[in-house]
Amino acid sequence: MRKSNAKHEPAKDSSGAPAAYLSADERRAVGKALRDATPRAAHGDWKSPKDRRDPVELLREANEGRIAELIPLRFSRMAQSPFAFYRGAAAIMAADLASTPTSGLRVQACGDAHLMNFGGFATPERNIFFDINDFDETLPAPWEWDVKRLAASIVIAARHIELPDSAGAKAATESVCSYRERMADYASMRALDVWYDRIDLDRVLKVLPSGAEVERVRQRVEQARRKSLPESLFPKLVEHFGSAPRIKDAPPLIFHPTAEQAPGVRTGYVEALEGYRKSLPEHIRVLFDRFRLFDLAIKVVGVGSVGTYCALGLFMAADDDPIFLQVKEARKSVLEPYAGKSVHKNHGERVVAGQRLMQAASDIFLGWTRGVIGRDYYFRQLRDAKISAIPEDWDLTTLKEFGKLCAWALARAHARSGDPARIAGYMGSNTTFDDAVCEFAVEYADQNLRDYRGFVKAIREGRIPVASED
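^ that's the sequence the OP posted. Answer follows.
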């Protein structure tokens, strides 16, 4: 696939001049015409290319620069199930998606749009929104890649909770249908209405299938609010040495880095913190300047992120006024070899810019910096009423409704950076595209299972190290 460094700029014609104005109907027609080169049914086929790279080697390549002691923990988490493996294998699927057909339309892509990377969180106004919540791999890329990763994750999740393949296929199809129909809605909306659109708690509750589901979601929201309060987080994560608060060590998941692991520890991360501070909007700097860094510890998070330099920072404005900021290493996106390099020189800035473009509302402390040895990082608040999915508790109805919510959020995010009229015109009003992506999702779920089995075999043969979290 042709690489591109395209920014989100106004369209131009072949002479470089701004392109002529096109109505929404004309843009839909442009999108529909793209089917001539890439029929919608072409998205339905997945066959492993003859030159497909060894998935185990791709995973090993992704270990470069990670904390060596944590790599066995990363692989241990991936080995738990085909679903866990899929969550940690974004690099494998990115390479596979690069060989699949696309319409040629690009958006700010999530890059890792599996259903566990969607959920609820508190906005700066303290409302609860449903949206994408992970942007480590975000980059301008074909919109189809996100849709296919989401659909495949639904089929794999259905198998994980022991639903029949027919149920997983139905849930994936309904999710893609939701994406297509929501995109058609965005195509007919005013630009500002698209930008202001939100999937708030009230809208989520309205689409839930039963009163029991409504009550369960309300309870989860209330629980998440309580857990994110300082009086809940502080005693769980902090202990005192004399009068100084310090993050509790709980190895191997939380521990204080050595000077070799974090060279900035000797200077108190002064340079990196100043870089982060400068990345904040001016009015947020005024708030951030009330706080001082008291402690920082490595904190293992997720599946694919294990081994990267992710940390937890304790900041205090007063003895009873703490905040916890999560500091995550930002590496190059797994999409970069196939979609083109980021226009941002700092990968932390790439993540922040992509998140602000795709999310309806973002954390006020979202910012980026570069460490003393050249690693890029981004900052955000820890557990700001974050509500994550628990698929083990689901039945088919819950899986279907959650998949449709994820597709809605994805369509809204893509409509902000891409042209919803062109994308909607390409997909059309019938189920041809839905059925094709469902076919791909089922076939790719089979591919993921083959890759997982090869991965487990490599562990048994001693070619991949694993370690227990106990």
